């Protein structure tokens, strides 16, 4: 359960940083 939370958090951060870079 905790692993899934961490993985999803990392994915969200990556998507956020990518969207920020693309702007």
TrEMBL record:
Domain of life from the UniProt record: Eukaryota
Designated name of the protein: Uncharacterized protein
Organism: Anguilla anguilla (European freshwater eel)
Lineage: Eukaryota, Metazoa, Chordata, Craniata, Vertebrata
